[in-house]
């Protein structure tokens, strides 16, 4: 498998897709499922409009871009909850890849990576009905296979809250012949919701898969939450290749209970990322998660480049 990122080049990606669609573009998303928008042309256009500022940012700064598919909820359990058949789900995953390719074409020759997003089987914040690595690989195999068949450059497991599911996605990606990225979320203490440390999680996935993930990320947590996890020295820190932080300092439980969007302070978020740079020499991908938009990603990229 070919590693899709050019060495020594910074890539940006987008921010909080679902929170931006809901709070900035005024859309309703059942179960946070952005893939439903691909059922019709209006939804396709709303997603294209969402990605446009990030394409502009990459072009203005001459950066690469990782273009995500809108498929974080596009797995069998969530699709069944929303009333989609297996066939319809595969079709919508394919449409998401097509849209990501359209977005990537707007970079006018700058490096573009189409990233097939795989979300957790259950809640992104709470570990419920945990699977074994083998069960997770079997569960996610269908979505990963469709994304790989339709031409993504890599597959990213986003907001993994326990190791075994991350291992399963990595195994499914290896079977489909596509590079994998595993992104963990952490609580305010810098640990996964299971209580495991971030460095233990990275090392466990690498040990279980023969270091098959292309790199790891941290997402859906504020830098003040995961900065303390980086105090653990060792080669595992070089395996962190991307950051997608939340705008808010609130905990996952507080975010779940909040009805209002907390978009934090973009400048502060950028400065906090800059403070992490010396401890994370492997980071090439910068974006955002809940509550972030192009303002935050611009501030993060500019701070990192200084």
Index terms:
single chain; 306 residues; alpha/beta; TIM Barrel; eight-stranded parallel barrel; HCY_dom_sf; Homocysteine S-methyltransferase family protein; HCY_dom; metal-binding; zinc
Helix vs. strand class? alpha/beta
Shape: globular
Low-confidence stretches: none
The percent range for helix content is 40-55%
Rg, nearest Å: 17 Å
Widest β-sheet, arrangement of strands: 1-2-3-4-5-6-7-8
In words, what does this structure look like?
Pfam families: S-methyl_trans (PF02574). Its cofactor is Zn(2+). By secondary structure, this protein is α/β, with parallel strands linked by helices. It has one domain: Homocysteine-binding-like domain (TIM Barrel, Alpha-Beta Barrel), CATH 3.20.20. Helices cover 43% and strands 13% of the residues. The chain contains eleven helices and eight strands. It is globular and about 45 Å long.
